[in-house]
Amino acid sequence: MDSRPSDEMLLLAVAECDMGAFRTLYERHAGWLAIRLARRCNDRDLVADAIQDTFVAVWQKPQGFRADGDIAAWLWGIAIRRLVSRLRTHSSVAAVFEHVEAAPAAEDQVLLSVEYGDIGQALARLSPEMRAVIQAVVLDGLSAREAAHLLDVPVSSVKTRLYRAKARLRAALAEGPS
Amino acid sequence: MTGWHLDEDIVRRYVERADSLTEGASVEQHLLSCEPCRARVNAAASVIELSVIDLAAVWDRTRNAVEVPRPSVFERLLRGAGLPAPEARLVAVASAFRGVWLTGVAAVLAFAALAAAMGHARGVWLFLSVAPVVPCLVVASSYDPWLDPALEPELVTPYPVLRLILLRTIAVLALALPAVLLFGLVVPGETAFAWLLPAVGFVALVLAASTWVSPLRSAIVVSCAWLTVVWLLATRSRSPEAVLQGRAQAGFLVLAAASFAIFLLRRRQLRQLRPWR
User: Fold this and answer.
1) B5 close contact with A: CB closer than 8 A
2) Residue B10: per-residue pLDDT
3) Which of A79, A150, B116, B158 could form an SS bridge with B187, CB 3.0 to 4.6 Å?
4) What range defines the domain where residue A128 resides?
């Protein structure tokens, strides 16, 4: 066991206005949060702003964390919503969901089938727009309205794309691996 | 906790964004609950330097943002009244708004008003001598550099000092006058309001005098002069009517107008606003 304080202990210290604990919490989480946010938004300045907003919010309301999960998940929930609200005020900047889609290597296929079964292949066959909606709504847990702001499309488009994407996936999974 | 962890290839692909949607989603789900893997992603990002975001700079901004003290109730009130945030801060940092100072002023007034309400003949005199000088003392202390060290850098910055002092004066009066008026309600007769014009006159006089000497010093001189006048009247006529007469009130009005005119004419001298010491 290492003697480093847990995130929960750090958060308690932050509630006592402990700047050192706040710094440690930042160093542990800002990096991966920034990487994950940058995968949803190509504007680095906006991502930096969202990170700042996130930690300012943590400093102001550390008691917002209810001890029913991982602090990392709580932080992510704040961060993605801060990014969305930043995007809302910069409507000219569109978040871009473009993945450099590498052809899955053999070992990746193994990993994917372990983690997701055949859903990986089914997802890979979706159009980029549908994948973006699936990622925002299903994987990131955003509401349709938040996803619409993030992707800069109307809410109705998010809903129809999500509906179609789910139908495609269902059909693909029912078909079985081809 | 599963024993499963991200291997180096997956971490690298994730950081370089060379993964597929499903692999990325899988990684992200794992990161939420796995501290060692988060640390490895952080490390990988800093080594590859794909993270264009300058996290150290973001940290500095974040720390600055949280270290700014939350605006006081009064400052938020000023902002609500339409004053821009930096000006609201300049006005609100005046020492006159610190709770201790206001409490002291309120205590003095309460004492004087209470004495007057108890029916002592001298109580009315006491209130009459204290009430008019309270506003000018509070105003002077709101911009005396000795009481408000924050004012010195403000004076050397190219900020219109005149505007600052007038804003503070108005803000101070908005706080002090209702308090004095409230205590005046328990004082019998016309005395309760007779001090208003003298008070305005003294504030203007202090503003004008502070273009020559320290604001606090001029406020103290004005207060002493007023106390002497009241004392002389009290010993000679035993009636407070003298300062309430129409002619005396008109005199205070003239004093206020003349002082304010001098203040505006000599406003350039405010640059050399002198501290008490």
Assistant:
1) no
2) 87
3) B116
4) 106-175
Q: Select from A55, A89, A123 the last residue of a domain.
A: A89
Does residue A12 form part of some domain? yes
Which residues of A fall within a CB distance of 8 Å from B25?
135, 139
A52:B20 CB<8 A:
no
Q: What is the pLDDT of residues B5-16, one digit of tens each?
A: 888 888 888 888
CA–CA–CA angle A43, A46, A50 (5° rounding): 140
Give the mean pLDDT of chain B.
73
| CA nearest to B46 within chain A | A31
Q: Based on the domain organization, do A68 and A111 belong to the same domain?
A: no
Q: Are residues A85 and A112 in the same domain?
A: no
Residue A119 scores a pLDDT above 60: yes
The answer to whether residue A146 sits within a structural domain is yes
The total domain count for chain A is 2
Instruction: Name chain A contacts of B27, Cβ cutoff 8 Å.
Output: none
Q: Please tell me whether residues A121 and A47 are part of one structural domain.
A: no
- B42 vs A22, A31, A44: nearest CB: A31
pLDDT of residue A99: 42
Residue A1 domain-assigned (yes or no): no
Cα separation, A93 vs A89, in Å, equals: 9
pLDDT tens digits, one per residue of B116-141:
666 666 666 777 777 777 777 777 77
Q: Is the ipTM value over 0.85, yes or no?
A: no
Q: What is the CATH number of the domain that holds A69?
A: 1.10.1740.10
Rounded Cα–Cα distance for residues A100 and A103 (Å)? 9
**How far away is chain A from the Cα of B73, in angstroms, using its nearest Cα?**
17
Contacts of B103 (CB under 8 A, 6+ apart): none
Cα A106 to Cα A84: distance, rounded to the nearest angstrom: 36
**B12 in contact with A, Cβ within 8 Å:** no
Contact B33 A31 (CB under 8 A): no
